[in-house]
Amino acid sequence: MDFDTLRERALAFRDELLARKDKIAPTDFGWYPYDTMANIFHLDALLSGPQRQIFDRIAGTRVADIGAADGDFGFFLEAELGCQVDVIDNAPTNFNGLRGARLLVKELASDVQVHEIDLDSQFALPAERYGAVFFLGLLYHLKNPFFVLESLARHAELCFLSTRVAQVAPDGTRIQHLPVTYLLNPAEANNDATNYWIFSETGLRRLFARTGWEVVEFTTVGCTEDSDPRSQDRDERAFALLRSTAL
Fold it and tell me: What global pTM score does this model have?
């Protein structure tokens, strides 16, 4: 399946899922408020050449959607590509304690498995081997990203990853060509104490190499000039397709 077709199917699935969410909206908790399926547009910008058929390779395999919010993308992969899907998140920091994902499993009569795992305190994935893991918008929420990525490289062939990056430090020091990261204060970025490490692009690429990943595709979106680690209007995001060198 070419990616253009996959994108259109993803957008149609999003519309159907949003309608169903509205219909069964719970009264005791809220759905995750952001459009996680919009990542399909960033993956569209990321993938080029033969990688635009990469989802053919993933179809039918076991995949993990880690840091999954309500698991929307995982449900799409099951419905459209026949994947066996593990939805993984840390319930105490998930927007609704993973109740949204569990409700959707019942509503969709899905075989998606929902797992509560704190990757910072333990690394015990539900399966030994994955065709791909989706690790979108999670890296800067980890206290120990080196350990997690190194461990993940021993279990997954491919990784789709996104995270915030920065070109300048808050004091204006240029960091984009240095392999460094910035450690946020608890309230420094969106008043969210679960935000920790914001890498420079060079630092992020060094992290990939040191933890057992080869960069297959890489792009950035958002504020791509003078981005910083804490300002809402200076938010730059990196998207990468990685291949494990540890398997």
Answer: 0.96
